[in-house]
Design brief:
Layout: H1 3-7, H2 37-65, H3 67-80, E1 86-92, E2 98-104, H4 114-125, H5 144-152, H6 159-165, E3 169-171, H7 178-181, H8 190-193, E4 198-200, H9 202-207, H10 213-226, H11 229-245
Parallel strand pairs: 3-4
Antiparallel strand pairs: 1-2
Helix pairs in contact: 2-6
Length: 250
């Protein structure tokens, strides 16, 4: 991530003293005026440890279980258009760290991405007004096979590898493209600082391309503030229906 982009990320720091008043009586942790940070850190560490274990276990299992489907998709992509099977795109992960996000290629090789850059800029600037489609409808760069893969979200199956590598989680906000960050307002940036990006999440289940950009970010922030193993498992269980229904997908 470039220094210029880092400078535009606003981070608030809060200092909690060891004791409220060192000259006064010594207080137990649960009697302090501030939240018990020790207990909170312990529960947070436990949650993230369990979340990582679930990420690795389910990703390995799904990659093995879906291997015949992955092979079939690879063949369809290869015989239907020139170019590689996989598409690697730089994305922004937690704390602004860039990584190569893997997807099945859905577009023609060597196509112009400037159309998407301008579309995303307009999408973010007009959020809260009329713009409610996160992807370009009838994008001429997309192949016939790619259109089917996008409609069913099968193009995102290779991202289980990103989960195994630790770049992503199964549940979390979608990872943005670097040029998206240039258009972010300060409050938008919480979605890339406070948690790992994910394959599914509140927006992917409840919103997808039916919501505008600000609504998507609000759903991401709601997940960040309420994340728990129960919510993660619930969203993972709801994802197949959201995908099969095709609601809001393009």
């Amino acid at each position: 991530m470039s220094p210029a982009r880092v400078d535009r990320i606003d981070i608030s720091l809060h200092f909690f003293p060891e004791e409220v008043d060192s000259a006064g009586p010594q207080l137990k942790s649960d009697e302090r005026l501030y939240p018990d940070l020790i207990n909170r850190d312990a529960s947070t560490a436990l949650y993230h440890g369990a979340k990582r274990a679930i990420d690795v276990t389910l990703s390995l299992a799904l990659l093995m279980l879906l291997s015949p489907l992955l092979a079939l998709i690879a063949v369809l992509i290869k015989v239907s258009s020139d170019g590689p099977v996989l598409f690697r795109q730089r994305r922004i992960g937690q704390f602004g760290i860039e990584f190569d996000c893997l997807k099945f290629r859905t577009m023609y090789a060597n196509c112009d991405h400037e159309i998407h850059r301008q579309y995303v800029k307009k999408l973010i600037q007009e959020a809260g007004r009329s713009q409610k489609v996160y992807k370009i409808v009838d994008d001429p760069r997309v192949t016939p096979v790619g259109r089917m893969l996008r409609k069913t979200s099968l193009d995102e199956l290779p991202q289980f590898v990103n989960v195994l590598l630790g770049d992503m989680s199964l549940v979390g906000p979608r990872p943005p493209i670097p040029y998206e960050i240039d258009c972010y307002l300060a409050w938008h940036k919480r979605r890339i600082i406070e948690t790992k990006p994910g394959i599914t999440g509140l927006w992917q289940v409840y919103g997808r391309s039916r919501t505008n950009f600000d609504e998507m970010v609000r759903l991401d922030i709601r997940y960040i503030e309420r994340q728990s193993l129960w919510l993660d498992l619930k969203l993972m269980a709801m994802t197949p229906y959201a995908v099969l229904s095709g609601a809001g997908a393009y």
